[in-house]
């Protein structure tokens, strides 16, 4: 986390103010104006109660006599009109606050999601999918609640300023109690603030653990049951939920304690005003009533203000987490023009060396021809997936030199070349709702006939023919859920539709049986004559459809074999 994100555990005010700019500053100015107008109207309504309480006396405030013709009926009509104006202004301000909070939360989600999409792969090395899920969902809700609390504090501050200002105008001696109220409010705002911040940080951490327990639940359930660890999972989940329950209860206890303190302080403050009124000379009853009504308007805000401070304390750790992901380093953008290389050109890697800690993996003089399949094999953890990341243009290598046709390529040139690519990993599962949505995500302009043709090539057509929904078959419903192998076939159908320059399949057929794997890979070669196919697999049988094989040894040496030699070795039982 860089220095702009946090300082001693507190979010940077500059970073927070930057998020406020995205919330539409013009609308916030309108919100402030509406809040100011409603505060004026509310204070006026409070003052206009005086002649209703003392109908036989003229309204004398601040040494000025206010007379209204028409008696009590006229006073009541004016009071109703001002009260209605106050209600309408507060209603409009509340509606605008709702729009501001909605826009603020939307911008937070879009910003952090966009940063995650653009993040470099190394910057995500120490993150967990559970924490990312929390950042994109509940964590933003907490921050948005904090933003809404800030709006409420703004209203409370404006209302307090207007009410205290009018109280001072009505009776300067009585307004001497205002500093007492200010001191009491400051004391109240600091009650349990550190405890609340600690509880909030633990709450955010426990929610992340809860996301971790809930992640990929159907697959995890099978694993848990196979090990007979149901009780252990229940206990572990129960411990997290118990901490969340205790944290939530602690928060409510802190709020209740703060409310009690505020109410006691308010009672002491009001008593002090009356005592001051009776001890000072020259304070009439109308002034006393007016000041009490004006200051009484602040009582509801005392409780809401304390709650708003609690929400701000809760939002602080959530904002820290959000800002940490906003500070992720972005993948280096390409700065070159689109390549004009023909899809039929041979791509030759003269030198590819991975960056540390896998710098020992050094590949030289490997040629990739469109329409051919290259098998990459080796033990787990040897660097196959890191090599695929480099070949996909997603991870910067330690050294790189390549050529396509007669043109030399540095890595920036190469990244631009492979932008028309397709990368499918074993761990990726479709997140779209239906088969149609999944395929159109890859190629939005594809027709239904193109979709069905691609599904037939990967062997999914018969599966969907038995579904009443066809292309609209849901991917995750209980009645039509596709198996792991079927989901891999679906992702390979995306590759067929995309017609990429290079397709990198990192164990993308691992859920298929050997015969189905060979059939699908053969279909890919047949349907993609202008695509370079690179397949990572632990199955030696893939060599039967490969045009060349790259094997990474335990000493990080890379051996290259042609298709004929690979098949001969396979038939001899050595692969």
UniProtKB/TrEMBL annotation:
SUPFAM superfamilies, A to Z: ABC transporter transmembrane region, P-loop containing nucleoside triphosphate hydrolases
Keyword terms of this UniProt record: ATP-binding, Membrane, Nucleotide-binding, Transmembrane, Transmembrane helix
InterPro entries: AAA+_ATPase (IPR003593), ABC1_TM_dom (IPR011527), ABC1_TM_sf (IPR036640), ABC_transporter-like_ATP-bd (IPR003439), ABC_transporter-like_CS (IPR017871), P-loop_NTPase (IPR027417), Type_1_exporter (IPR039421)
Compartment(s): Cell membrane
Membrane topology classification: Multi-pass membrane protein
Molecular-function GO term, any one: ATP binding
PROSITE patterns named among the record's database cross-references: ABC_TM1F (PS50929), ABC_TRANSPORTER_1 (PS00211), ABC_TRANSPORTER_2 (PS50893)
Organism superkingdom: Bacteria
Domain (ABC transporter) ranges: 341-571
Classification via Pfam families: ABC_membrane (PF00664), ABC_tran (PF00005)
Residues passing through the membrane, by range: 25-52, 72-89, 149-170, 176-193, 260-280
ABC transmembrane type-1 domain segment(s): 29-314
Stored PANTHER family: ATP-BINDING CASSETTE SUB-FAMILY B, ATP-DEPENDENT LIPID A-CORE FLIPPASE
Annotated protein name in UniProt: ABC transporter ATP-binding protein
Organism: Dyella acidisoli
Lineage, highest ranks first: Bacteria, Pseudomonadati, Pseudomonadota, Gammaproteobacteria, Lysobacterales
